[in-house]
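Case study 2.
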Amino acid sequence: MHRRAFLSLILAGAATPPASYGQPVEPLAGAAGSGSPAFDAWLASFYPRAVAAGLAPALLDRELAGLTPDDRVSGADSRQPEFSKPVGAYVRGVVSADRIAIGQNRRTDLTYLDGIEQRFGVPRDILIAVWAMESGFGALQGKYDVIRSMATLAADGRRRGFAEDQLIAALKIISSGEFPRSRLIGSWAGAMGQTQFIPSTFLDTAVDGDGDGLRDIWGSSVDALASAANLLRKGGWTPGAGWAREVLVPPGFDYSLTEGPQDSPDWWAQAGVRPADGLPWSGADRASKAMLIAPAGAAGPLFLVLPNHFAIRTYNNSTAYALGVGLLADRFAGGADLVRPWPEETPLSLIDRIDAQRALATLGFSPGEADGVVGVNTRAAVRAWQKARGLTADGYLSIEMVRRLRGETGQAQPAPPP
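Prediction:
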């Protein structure tokens, strides 16, 4: 089918999906076309970009004809939770007794982990923790047709560039002959396999760990964990070094140093920062640069994070995610629980977070866009405001801080729930 014929079918809503690519997880929403003029218009405009990216028209005709948007994907992408889960609640949920028991069994039962560690220099406990976090040790890989999901996200437009890039990458996987479309199954956002690689990461980073000639991150845990190790190593993992240590600080400590200087553990020791377990630093860690973080504020556990913490964040750029992986890995290896427990935190609503960001901006601090995402810029603004007001400058946005900010800028306090 030539491009002109393909476009005619799409715009007429007359194309039906061929059976050659295997059965999708869910049947397509309708055999007579997408039923969405906006989707059909996007699909027609995407075709020349895909051809320019080197994809054969015959492949595009086969895989894109009859494609329909998936309303489940649109719904998942548009939903933003009303309340954010506090980091302590998140980590407690991740570092569960069941996960620890399963991970400890896996670290001894899976003999192939020796070879992966030797090849990539990433410890087995970190890899098993990623595996646990991403797919429940391979059990929860998602049930979405990745081609259809990426097309839906691209047509919706909010993340069009990302989604089109991933759609092209997924089509390149099919074009290579390594896997058919029926194997490209993943989450609604396009993450695939036991270690949840997006298609472009699969192309660039997945490896054949078991030597069968395929990079089967769906069916082979060897391939999946070797691929995860390759991703972390490419992300800057330093073999022989740790990822973080829980630390304690003296009374009167200047918490404005959190998320600030990156210096050696010896430098931090001069400021009174010491390992919570009382054990010495390894030589590799003592030679590393460390940054202090207080993810739950001064009332919660504190950590000196090392470069390998940031390597974990190449997988998912979230402090909470990296803490979950690292702390779970520590427990797999027989480490003890934290010395300072996570405090009970009040979840902040979306309007709480947006109000705080708007108040900070009004007061002359710079939290960035008032989008409800409490990232580095917002925490820095909170820290600067706290320091200017003589408060503990830990950068932690608690409900008390939100109320203070609302009061200082004259914002109305929301009515309590009935």
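Residues 74 and 153 are 7 Å apart (CA to CA).
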